[in-house]
Amino acid sequence: MATSEFSVPVDHPALAGHFPGNPVVPGALMLDEVINALASSCGTAPIAIVTAKFLRPLLPGQRCIVEFSPQREGQLQFVCRSQDQVVARGQLLIEAR
């Protein structure tokens, strides 16, 4: 299992519309950070996002830990945790080695 972490700065431009006065990190931005974390920790990029489920809001500035674990051939599971709670999870299709 590999891990990585990220946090989205409070002044990130994507936060302006999600939601004024009460910003949350958009799911698309969170997935982009997951893909970047995969590249930096495992040296690979996904071919596709098989599933993604967002369970709790991730707030700007919160530390998010991403854990990757292998599944069947060519798939990785990811779990995003912040403040000891799962905020997102899913599966990525990667190129088989």
CATH architecture: Roll
Q: What class, by secondary structure content?
A: alpha+beta
How many beta-strand segments?
Answer: 5
What would the principal axes of the Cα set say about the shape? elongated
Helix and strand sequence: EHEEEE
Corresponding CATH superfamily:
Hotdog Thioesterase
The CATH top-level class label: Alpha Beta
Overall tally of domains: 1
Tell me the number of helical segments per DSSP (H or I, 4 or more residues long). 1
Mean pLDDT: 93
Radius of gyration equals 13 Å
Distance between the termini: 17 Å
- CATH names the topology as Thiol Ester Dehydrase, Chain A
Structural features, described:
With 97 residues, this protein is α+β, with helices and mostly antiparallel strands. It has one domain: Hotdog Thioesterase (Thiol Ester Dehydrase, Chain A). It contains 1 helix and 5 strands, in the order βαββββ. A 5-stranded antiparallel sheet has the order 1-3-4-5-2, with helices on one face. The protein is elongated and about 45 Å long. 19% of the residues are buried.
